[in-house]
């Protein structure tokens, strides 16, 4: 007789927004774990997400909660995914860890969505809370699990680096026309603008590509310096600031106090071979194209790779005579429904969510520690804060640098680039 299968790992989802639905979709391709519970401050939203999980058959009798402690104490919940807005990150993780520390609940692990905190102090607090509760932990950075990166990185290191030397330059970008939810546009709630929102992806993707398989990027790459630029390019213009105010009432006035919608940073590291290497990261909320664009390049002495998400799996064409409803059925952050458009057939798989959640659930089930841990999240946050500081001061920031108490001016709503004297002179 065949040995009986172990019960699937029970997953509790905390948060009910866009990213939570993306994660739930990914479970259609994951074995060995089921979604058993959902939580949101709104019980109706938690129930909607639970129904969505049942509709996709990634969980049965999924229980909805509006209380975090109740979800964590649910006997069917073995691990939790924290997918709530940035400004709630610390309080949510504290609530989870308190249940575990008190003995009222037992978990095999906790996974926390990017970024780990709005600043370095928050990121460190999240990691300390989880370690204090004795939990295994994962940092949910999907791009380092994306097949376009994992496979090409494997080939670059096996066929290129092994024969001609380690790679020396990674260029990574992420661009789209702006976030879905209002809180992303609130620089205090989000912790900044596009640098904090998207560069966490591009930076970690760059570190991943420059690090040999099986090694920790934080151990292989020692940061040396960073220069950076942030700007308000699109959403601070009168027309688009007015549109933003109409779409998301109550959000700060982007004409005077915007979040940055453009950011670039150049990081210099020394790699494990003692060679200088560079990550160039660029992110934007001002890209208007078919939809979200992710691009990656890796350069080495005798090899290179490039990938672009908008190459898609197929293309479709709809003429101007077709009346189309707006949607995101072709790809994330879709901006058009007519003309020649790319199609990404399985976005959760293409963007890395399937591989990410498969890996983490299997490691948690085996009692192990995922490689992309909360320590990775802390390291990324520290590097992001250094970029903000470099952009604010217009200097080259050299490591090590103490950013323990630093909060970017953007996040304090003290960044006013469009009312600065230079801006006034430029428009005079």
Write the layout of secondary structure elements.
Elements: E1 9-14, H1 18-26, E2 33-39, H2 43-55, E3 63-65, H3 68-73, E4 79-82, H4 89-101, E5 109-113, H5 120-132, E6 136-140, H6 147-164, E7 169-175, H7 182-185, H8 187-190, H9 194-210, H10 217-220, E8 222-231, H11 238-247, E9 262-270, E10 276-284, E11 293-300, E12 303-308, E13 314-318, E14 339-343, H12 347-350, H13 353-365, H14 374-393, E15 397-398, H15 421-427
Parallel strand pairs: 1-2, 1-4, 2-3, 4-5, 5-6, 7-10
Antiparallel strand pairs: 7-11, 8-9, 8-15, 9-10, 11-12, 13-14
Helix pairs in contact: 4-5, 5-14, 9-14
Notes on the structure:
This protein is of the alpha/beta class. It has 2 domains: 144 residues, NAD(P)-binding Rossmann-like Domain (Rossmann fold); 225 residues, 2-Layer Sandwich (Dihydrodipicolinate Reductase, domain 2), CATH 3.30.360. Helix content is 36%, strand content 21%. It has a 7-stranded mixed β-sheet with strand order 12-11-7-10-9-8-15. Strands 3-2-1-4-5-6 form a 6-stranded parallel β-sheet, with helices on both faces. Helix 5 links the parallel strand 5 and strand 6. The longest helix has 20 residues. 49% of the residues are buried. The N terminus and C terminus are likely disordered. One of its GO terms (molecular function) is oxidoreductase activity. Keywords: Oxidoreductase. This is Gfo/Idh/MocA family oxidoreductase. It comes from Streptomyces evansiae.
